[in-house]
Amino acid sequence: MSRSAHPAGPRYADVIPEGHYSAPPADLNALDRRVWARTVGRDADGVATVGGLDVQRLAEEFGTPAYFLDEEDFRARCRAWREAFGDGADVFYAGKAFLSRAVVRWLHEEGLNLDVCSGGELATALAAGMPAERIALHGNNKSTEEIERAVREGVGRIVLDSFQEIVRVAHIAEKLGKRQRVQIRVTVGVEAHTHEFIATAHEDQKFGLPLAAGQAAEAVSRALRLEHLELVGIHSHIGSQIFDTSGFEVAAHRVVGLLKQVRDEHGVELPEIDLGGGLGIAYTADDDPREPHEIAKALSEIVTRECEGAGLAVPRISVEPGRAIVGPTAFTLYEVGTVKPLQGLRTYVSVDGGMSDNIRTALYDAEYSVALVSRTSDAEPMLSRVVGKHCESGDIVVRDAFLPADLAPGDLIAVPATGAYCRSMASNYNHALRPPVVAVKDGEARVIVRRETEEDLFRLDVG
Ligand SMILES: *Cc1c(COP(=O)(O)O)cnc(C)c1O
């Protein structure tokens, strides 16, 4: 065991970790395949690499903090989802997880469709050449301008989320001389997060129209009566970071129940069913997500079985993974600043970013892992908390982590699985300059979203 640089710091055996870990991992230098992007490894000197480039050089060239995105992994995940579902189903990437023009082009090339939920996301999709018919527009409060643009451009579907919107989209389509394909978003009373799901969740939320109270069926009736709307299906999205398909099973059962009711009352069989996104990824080595082909098989079996039971033709299925595609493909690289051992507690490791580049820990109590990547170390594990540099004690990036006890200012550490909902939720809190996103592939690194500069701050602050 090597000498600790912080002899006063707590060792894991001295404290009772209050969080995720009961013991440190066997090998602090290992980069667990489940949480790191596909091409991440270590070179002969122990420096971590991605796409063939070492993080020390990447940090010198692009600075820290920065997100490094493994393009090969991203494309492989797109292909895995598409191949798993085949030609009889549609995969929509949920753009809110992370969207840039480069990402839109990759999605286009890999044959995926794209969900957007704002005018800005729609503009990004169109600017990068995604064909409008492969775009779906979501949102519980779409503006008139957003709807007009979507209808004018000819988006493949608008997912209707309220009675007012049914009328609003119909009016806009009529005004523009179009017939708009739409789905209706319903809430099925199922809520799924991680390992648990609740089949009797209340429908007390802003999205969708409740099935149980009959509002979903009423929405279908109204949409079917409007000639400028082409109602093609029902949409349900039940949660996030879901690891098994039992929640989808209950949701599909209830949605198919509605399809049957629609057939019985209106003589119409709606041809599409969208089961939403929310598929889980590994943030720590304890998470064990299903592969796309397992999910595809389970979902199509569930829908087929339900439809056979209801005497309905099997509709075309679509799914909307966001996190499951982009989440695992990126890590955030930070430089260690201060290292502060608190006697009997833990060591606070401060990095040059924080809640401005990853709000998920503060917002959702999300769990992450972290590794020393600029070198390996044989030092003993040190119970740590990785925190940012913001003026907020809740500014935590990784709540419970073991890092080597010889960790020192200037070391580079990386937090894996930050591809989803980190850059897209990044803020300028404390006038932080939002980090760049650098795509790495085959020994080449390319900035796809550049780092903000002080000039960017002053461009908006007009004095
Ligand atoms: C957020 C969202 C998704 C994507 O969720 P992930 O957890 O990123 O897979 C898909 N569909 C809808 C309607 C959403 O709101």
In short:
With 463 residues, the chain is of the alpha/beta class.
CATH level-4 homologous superfamily of the largest domain? Lyase, Ornithine Decarboxylase, Chain A, domain 1
Main beta sheet: 9 strands, mixed
CATH class of the largest domain: Mainly Beta
CATH A-level architecture of the largest domain: Beta Barrel
Q: Kindly report how far apart the N and C termini lie.
A: 57 Å
Low-confidence stretches: 1-8
Helix-strand makeup class:
alpha/beta
Please provide the count of β strands.
24
Helix content: 25-40%
Mean pLDDT across all amino acids? 94
* Ligand species: pyridoxal-5'-phosphate
Percent in strands: 15-25%
What distinguishing features does this structure have?
single chain; 463 residues; alpha/beta; Lyase, Ornithine Decarboxylase, Chain A, domain 1; TIM Barrel; eight-stranded parallel beta barrel; 28% helix; globular; binds pyridoxal-5'-phosphate
